[in-house]
Amino acid sequence: MLLEISGLAVDLPAPGGLQRIVDRASFSLAEGESLGVVGESGSGKTMTALALMGLTPESARVTGSIRFEGRELVGLDEEAMRELRGDRIAMIFQEPMTALNPLHSVGAQVAEPLMLHRGLTKRDAQQRAIELLGRVRLAEPERAARSYPFALSGGERQRAMIAMAIGCSPRLVIADEPTTALDVTVQARILALIDGLRAESKMAVLLVSHDLAVIAGHCDRVIVMYSGLIMESGPVEAVLREPKNPYTLALLEARPRPGAPRGARLRTIPGAPPVTHENRAGCPFAGRCALTVNVCRTMPPPEVAFGANRFSRCHRAREVGFAQ
Amino acid sequence: MNLPVRFRRRGGASLWFGAALVAALIAAAAVSLFWTPYPPAAIDVPHKLAPPSWAHWFGTDSLGRDVASQVLAGSRISILVGVIAVGIGLAIGVVLGLLAAFARGLIEDAIMKLSDFVFAFPALLSAIMLTSTYGPGVVNAIIAIGVYNVPIIAKLTRVTANGVLAREYALAARAAGRGPIAIAFDHVLPNIAPALIVQATIQFAIAILAEAALSYLGLGAQPPQTSWGKMLADAQNVLYSAPWLALYPGVAIALSVLGLNLLGDGLRDALDPKLKTRS
User: Fold this and answer.
1) Which of chain B's residues have a Cβ under 8 Å away from the Cβ of A95?
2) How far apart are CA B23 and CA B256, in angstroms?
3) Cβ contact (<8 Å) for A113 and B177?
């Protein structure tokens, strides 16, 4: 396994003590595999991604285990972590508008990790940057390399960010909502680009998104997070076709669907996610779930396995899809 | 891109008027290095307290020294004080501010508390303390004004640097494996430079005023050196019989400070992206 995470927890200081942002997260990722992480805002998906990079806020406490290429990353010193970042593990950010420094040319920013990790000279790195910009299908890579971020469109900037991320041939690319800030047609092309690069270089991709359609089209497996907990995990098709967790089911039902009768209202999930993750006696979804029974409020939900690589964290996992 | 065009549109009149006044100040100092109508310290008692005339444009003082020459020579002291005092503030303040922004935690708290402590003393009071302890003179006055600038620059650096560090490109730079020093020089400093330049201009004006005040109190420039503040002090005794002695150094101080403040305001308007006008 390229990446094995077990019992990962991230705590952030909050008024009145630590708050658990990510709780008992365990998952793994093989070479060339694509894993989707889906969940609403505040579900802990971005914090999970940042923990992999060692980029959680200074005040955060990270516990558990993150093994990458057989090496433990939790507790690894900053110096060693810095050597991994941008070289073995790279990240693509959500906002291509702000993720590039407005004061440096695009080429210089793409060349930067190459000089840092590969020891390339400035001239060689610039040359390689132009190749990379071509590889992410930017029209006129030479011109793009010379331009400053303001001169590029959102999609072009995101391509430049991807070029910057793949420069050192990382084994793992974390894409945190890479297309959320882009319009739909550009989004499809960017995701296709990431798919193509993954196939070419056998890198693994961790795709963080709140969009189930994006995950469905571009990932092998998916984990569904809610309030810091992984609620369900398994192969993408199985999870989305036949969810075993009421939260996944509710997410699926809240999507607009083509062919729905005119005037039909979208299903919503009643209530709001818990603001603090304090009430951990029971299931965090208990207050909003249609299947809630007494035990949901008192006992933490167990991981119920469905075969070797699929589980749902729910007291009533075996009844989901039948009871409603 | 096309900075001059943007400056013309956004900086407006205050930028150019301020720049012109500051340029005049610098030109006066430069000219005085090579030429003044008379040697500024040359005493000529028979012609003392002469009103402005063709021979003495700004008149002469109670020892017959040429006021125009002294005003010209005094500009050098003002610029010297401004450059070095602001330089001290920038050199130490930027380092402290960046350290606070990057280190966080205890170091940040310590630096900021120290800044508050220094900041709490009125500038003039700490300058008087310093000069009365270590003796009056331009050097001690410069140090005192420079020390006063440090916390102002440090606070500004910390706040603006935190703003840059919160931007995604700072996180992206870390995700690319870059260290704090590289991020400070490559991402933070270029992005906070506009704010620092504006503040430095304002501090320059304050430094000129502070030097004039200290010299007026006899704690700054010492004879035979001359400075605008000292000229004002000398003029006080003969204010009614020879008002031009106070008028010309006073006008010089006022125009310099006005010019620097206008320049600072104009630069802020021109450099602040938040004020960007949509065309």
Assistant:
1) 168
2) 10
3) yes
Residue A313 CA to its chain's centroid (Å): 20
Round to whole Å and give the CA distance between A102 and B230: 48
Gap from B269 CA to chain A (nearest CA, Å): 19
Contact status, residue A215 vs residue A209, Cβ threshold 8 Å: yes
Chain position carrying tokens 């003029």 = B235
Beta strand spans in chain A (E): 3-14, 17-29, 34-38, 61-68, 71-72, 89-92, 172-176, 204-209, 221-226, 229-235, 303-305, 311-313
Please state, in angstroms and rounded to a whole number, the distance separating the CA atoms of residues A212 and A255: 8
- Collect all residues of chain A within an 8 Å Cβ-Cβ radius of residue B171: 55, 93, 99
| Two tokens, residue B51 | 């009103």
Residue B213, CA distances (Å) to A282, B76, B128 in order:
70, 16, 10
Q: Which residues contact B162 (CB under 8 A, 6 or more apart)?
A: B101
- Is the separation of the CB atoms in A173 and A90 below 8 Å? yes
Does residue A306 contact residue A312 with C-beta atoms inside 8 Å?
A: yes
For A7, list phi and psi in degrees, rounded to 5: 60, 30
Burial of B246 (0-12, 13-18, 19+ CB in 10 A): middle
Q: How far is A319 from chain B (nearest CA, A)?
A: 43
Residue A24: name the closest of A9, A40, A12, A5 by CA.
A9
Query: How many separate helices (H) and strands (E) can be counted in chain B?
Result: 11, 0
ipTM of the complex: 0.80
> Where would I find the H helices in B167-243?
168-175, 180-183, 189-216, 228-235
Name the pTM for this structure: 0.80
* Local confidence pLDDT in tens for the 279 residues of chain B: 445 545 555 567 888 999 999 999 999 999 988 888 888 888 888 877 778 888 888 888 888 888 899 999 999 999 999 999 999 999 999 999 999 999 888 999 999 999 998 888 887 788 888 888 888 888 888 998 898 899 999 999 999 999 999 888 999 999 998 999 999 998 999 999 999 999 999 999 999 999 899 888 888 888 778 889 989 988 888 888 888 889 999 999 999 999 999 999 888 888 766 554 433
Contact B153, B87 (CB under 8 A): no
Q: How far apart are the C-alpha atoms of B84 and B200, rounded to whole Å?
A: 11
